[in-house]
Amino acid sequence: MNRTERLLAMVQMLRRHRHPVTAEAIAREFDVSVRTVYRDVIDLQATGVPVRGEAGIGYVLDPGFDLPPLMFTADELEALMLGARFVRDRGDPGLVRAAEDATAKILAVLPPALKPVFSDASVFAPNYREPPRDRIDLAVVRRALRAGRKLEIAYRDLQDRPSERVIWPIAVGYMEAARMVVAWCELRQGFRHFRADRIERMTELDQRYPARRSVLLKSWQAEMAAERSRHDATSQKSSPAP
């Protein structure tokens, strides 16, 4: 990459990290010398980019600094279009509309040279399996999730057994076979996955659940990782010896 591209990429690298990044780490990522990193940082600071650094600690980018959309690289634009097409094929109606609006906003501010890179990007995420029709509005789930509010649902499991539950939504999964609400279930006192097409009725409650969603999400991810490890270990034991 040329020097201008490297300076922009350096800003993006600093945005990715919450903690200071050493000059040595920056030099390794861009395959340049530490002396070059020092010069690049000075040039960024001279143009108004709020990079702060201390000897022996590293560099950080002050919060609030942002790059204009025209600074997107071709790879970044293709990644955004891939995401938009994924949402178009798998998202709920609210997210599909949001993806279309976001795409229009990006196209409106891109310079002419970059518009075809975005609109004609040759990256796709086709979905050849139409998921079952949801009985609920997932926009309500996503709203409750962001607000940390409980949901009361009427649910039928795979054996068609009905149940009434209060859940704490923490994530929504958009798979090919179905859309899934990940939540802590008060009835089962554990994490459960609820298919949106099997939720017959849903009410958003005024109650907030008594835990941070980020903490619950990490606990669920740890539980899923442990389950995968147990499954892999069981599969290895049951596999015949070569």
- Give start-end ranges of low-pLDDT stretches: none
Helicity, as a percent range: 40-55%
CATH topology grouping of the largest domain: SH3 type barrels
The biggest sheet amounts to: 5 strands, antiparallel
CATH architecture of the largest domain: Roll
Query: What is the structural class?
Result: alpha+beta
CATH class of the largest domain reads Mainly Beta
Number of DSSP E strands: 7
User: How large a portion of the residues is in β-strands, by DSSP E?
Assistant: 15-25%
Output mean pLDDT.
88
What oligomeric state best describes the polypeptide chains here?
A: single chain
Shape: globular
- Write the H/E string, N to C: HHHEEHHHHEEEEEH
Pfam families: HTH_11, WYL
Organism: Prosthecodimorpha hirschii
Protein name: DNA-binding protein
Task: Describe the overall structure.
The chain is an alpha+beta fold and 242 residues long. It folds into 3 domains: 3-61, Orthogonal Bundle (Arc Repressor Mutant, subunit A); 74-119, no CATH class; 138-234, SH3 type barrels, CATH 2.30.30. Helices cover 45% and strands 21% of the residues. It contains 8 helices and 7 strands, in the order αααββααααβββββα. The strands form 2 sheets. A 5-stranded antiparallel sheet has the order 6-5-4-3-7. The protein has a two-stranded antiparallel sheet with strand order 1-2. A hairpin with a 5-residue loop joins strand 3 (149-156) and strand 4. Helix 2 (23-30) packs across helix 3 (34-46) and helix 4 (74-90) packs antiparallel against helix 5. The longest helix has 26 residues, at 213-238. The protein starts with a helix and ends with a helix. The mean pLDDT is 88. Residues 138-203 form the WYL domain.
